[in-house]
Amino acid sequence: MSIFSGIWVPLITPFADAAVDHAALRALVRRYADAGIAGIVALGTTGEPAALSAAEQDAVLATILDAAQAGGARADASTGSKPALPVVVGVSGNNTHSMRERIAQLNSLPIAGVLMAAPYYIRPSQAGIVGHFMALADASEKPVVLYDIPYRTGVRLELDTLMTLAAHPRIQAVKDCAGSLDTTLALIRDGRLQVLAGEDMQMFNTMCLGGSGAIAASAHVQPERFVALYRALAAGALEEARHIFHALAPLIDTLFAEPNPAPVKAMLASQGLIRDELRLPMTRASEKLVERLAALETA
Length: 299
Known about the structure:
Helix content is 44%, strand content 13%. It has 299 residues and is of the alpha/beta class. Keywords: Amino-acid biosynthesis, Cytoplasm, Diaminopimelate biosynthesis, Lyase, Lysine biosynthesis, Schiff base.
């Protein structure tokens, strides 16, 4: 089984009095490892990397990697020890050269891979996108997960582009946020890329079609239930999985009622796990939404 399967959490960055709260960050990694998640995405969009300095990004990643070394969910039966929880690192930008430099820095770290979206804002041609990703994959010594999220980048990865990129030996998976059933199904049937749902409400559909899992911000909350959903589907227990997903759907819907990660942070703060702090231009969830989230917790 590919490493890019199961439920992955794109980890938030907790703040306390405007600084990164490394103690809370470390505790979150351990919490999700104990819940049985497959891995962590560090410095993805949910982690607010655009609001972090380069030094802060490096420090956040160091804390996550250190905490992840304590082990994932699958213990070694002979020794009782747990392997490190896999960590994929988000690398964003629209300057291919500077991104190659960043990837060169990451090559020496014990990471499971890098997650990269298409160059944002400049809206390059599909040929430019292919050249961009091929250059980055050539520079990487780690597996690459493509991130197809056109409503953030302004350009989508067309199916022919994805099929071309799938031929690169280090491009192994895609976080699928394109909203195209035809593309999702074609990638799954092709089989060269592991398809991870990136739209949380589509994770059930994607996994039923044969997708390998999900990178789900909503899995910050009640992570055990998201893991149970994946395991039920992997075991072919469709009725059980459907029951779990139907129960999770109101939570997922509410967690995306306002810009991510504000609702997730509000709910984690209500559980005493972090402070409810974000950095501008992101703002805290509204009082009305916080009330809706509280009602879900007591339901």
